[in-house]
């Protein structure tokens, strides 16, 4: 017997928003300005973490530069970001799930300021019942932001699904036994995501949409 999912929690960058390339470019720009070594692969690998954790991982030898590096990164990202960078089909998927009665939330490594800016850009504040940003809680893969979302919604982990493109997303959900879905069009590969026992790994938005619709409309009848 399968019960319908009541709450779907989405990561933002690389899952809903096609921003991975810009994040990498902005991190590389900041590193260059402060003469710090950084490869595109390393910059991409930390997407999903909170900004303080990003600085600690990428620039561990220069803690005195972290504040300036992150400001440089943020300024460059805002100056070069697109107004609307949903992956194709994401908006239709979200509105479709919402219209079917699914409750939607966001759990992201972005700062609250950054998340509010992109929510405004996409005019999507009203789509989500609650959003949590890493700057106001603990960074992934600590599950605190998921616990806070569950507390707000009054649901248990098994009544929700976490959807994300990184190991940080899926490990966070696994840490509280929340069902999870990986997407292979973002940051981490299928091989990495598979280590966290997701229900499925979607190759594209269309297959993600199809899978989530099945979960929302699952029958209570055996």
TrEMBL record:
InterPro entries in UniProt: HAD-like_hydrolase_sf, HAD-like_sf, HAD-SF_hydro_IA, HAD_2, HAD_sf, PGP-like_dom2
A biological process term (GO) from this entry: DNA repair
Molecular functions per Gene Ontology: phosphoglycolate phosphatase activity
Pfam hit, one: HAD_2
The keyword Hydrolase belongs to this UniProt entry's keyword annotation: yes
One annotated Gene Ontology cellular component of this protein: cytosol
SUPFAM superfamilies: HAD-like (SSF56784)
Keywords from the named record: Hydrolase
NCBIfam families the record matches: HAD-SF-IA-v1
Record's protein name: HAD-IA family hydrolase
